[in-house]
Design the sequence.
C-alpha cells in the first residue's frame, strides 16, 4: 500500500505541478455541489470530478486499476477529470449571483486567477523555432528545390507521400494508392505496369520509356540505386540533375517555365 501512495503521489504532483489549478478545481467542485440545483449538471460538473479523484486516491480501487492498466499509465485516470467543464462552470455559478460592476470585476479577477493557476502555452518549454514547417523529409525538400513547378512527374516511392505537400503545383503519374499494385502479376493496366517497372532495381527502359512518354511525364526521379537496361535518350529523356540520393531525367523538349501538368477529369 505504501508503494501505491508513492506512485499516486508522484504522478499526481507531476500532473498538477507548476500552478494552483488543483486547489481551484476543489473550490469549484464544492461550489457546484453546493449551488447547482439541477441534478444532471451537479453530477456531471461537480460529483463526477470528486468521484474520480476519490477513485484515484482510494488504495483498493487504485491497486486494482494498477493491476489492470499498469503502474505507468495509472495517472491517466486524472485525464478523466473534466477540468474544462468544472472550473468554468463553477465560475459561471459565482458570476450569476452578482450584478453590474461587481460581476465585471469578479469576471476580470477570475480570469486573472485562472491565468496564474496555469502556465503559458507559448513558453519556450513547449515551442521552439521550426526549420521545417511541414516536417517533411529533407530529401523531399532537396528534390523540390531541383524540380521546377507546374510539371507532371514520376517520382520515387520515398517521395510520393510528401512531394505535393512541398510543391502542390507538381502532379504525379501515380500516388500512394499505387502501393496496392505491389505483388500484382496478371491482367495489368499500363499505369500498373509503369509503377511495377519503376520499382525494379534494374529498370528496362524499353518497357518503361513508352509508358512514361504516353503518361506525359516531363520529369522522372529515380533512386541512385537503380540501374537501367537501355538508353533514355531513345525515348526523348536526358539527365537533368543528380544529388546524394536521386537521379532526375527530363523530357528533352521541356523548356524552363513551361506548364506540363496533367489534370484529371
Sequence:
Amino acid at each position: 500500500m505504501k508503494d501505491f501512495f508513492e506512485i499516486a503521489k508522484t504522478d499526481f504532483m507531476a500532473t498538477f505541478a507548476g500552478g494552483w489549478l488543483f486547489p481551484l478545481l476543489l473550490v469549484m467542485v464544492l461550489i457546484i455541489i453546493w449551488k447547482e440545483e439541477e441534478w444532471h449538471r451537479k453530477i456531471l460538473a461537480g460529483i463526477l470530478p470528486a468521484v474520480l479523484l476519490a477513485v484515484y486516491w482510494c488504495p483498493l480501487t487504485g491497486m486494482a486499476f494498477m493491476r489492470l492498466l499498469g503502474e505507468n499509465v495509472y495517472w491517466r485516470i486524472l485525464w478523466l477529470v473534466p477540468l474544462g467543464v468544472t472550473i468554468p462552470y463553477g465560475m459561471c455559478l459565482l458570476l450569476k449571483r452578482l450584478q453590474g460592476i461587481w460581476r465585471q470585476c469578479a469576471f476580470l479577477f477570475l480570469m486573472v486567477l485562472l491565468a496564474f493557476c496555469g502556465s503559458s502555452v507559448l513558453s519556450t518549454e513547449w515551442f521552439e523555432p521550426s526549420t521545417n514547417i511541414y516536417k517533411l523529409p529533407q530529401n523531399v525538400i532537396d528534390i523540390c528545390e531541383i524540380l521546377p513547378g507546374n510539371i507532371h512527374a514520376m517520382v520515387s516511392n520515398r517521395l510520393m507521400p510528401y512531394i505535393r505537400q512541398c510543391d502542390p503545383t507538381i502532379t504525379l503519374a501515380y500516388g500512394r494508392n499505387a502501393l496496392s499494385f505491389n505483388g500484382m502479376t496478371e491482367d495489368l493496366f499500363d499505369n500498373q505496369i509503369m509503377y511495377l517497372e519503376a520499382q525494379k532495381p534494374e529498370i528496362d527502359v524499353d518497357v518503361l520509356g513508352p509508358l512514361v512518354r504516353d503518361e506525359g511525364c516531363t520529369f522522372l526521379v529515380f533512386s541512385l540505386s537503380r540501374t537501367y537496361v537501355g538508353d533514355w535518350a531513345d525515348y526523348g529523356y536526358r539527365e537533368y540533375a543528380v544529388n546524394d540520393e536521386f537521379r532526375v531525367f527530363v523530357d528533352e523538349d521541356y523548356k524552363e517555365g513551361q506548364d506540363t501538368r496533367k489534370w484529371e477529369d
The CA atoms of residues 74 and 105 lie 40 Å apart. Strands lie at 152-154, 171-172, 202-204, 219-223, 227-229, 237-242, 246-251. The mean pLDDT is 86.
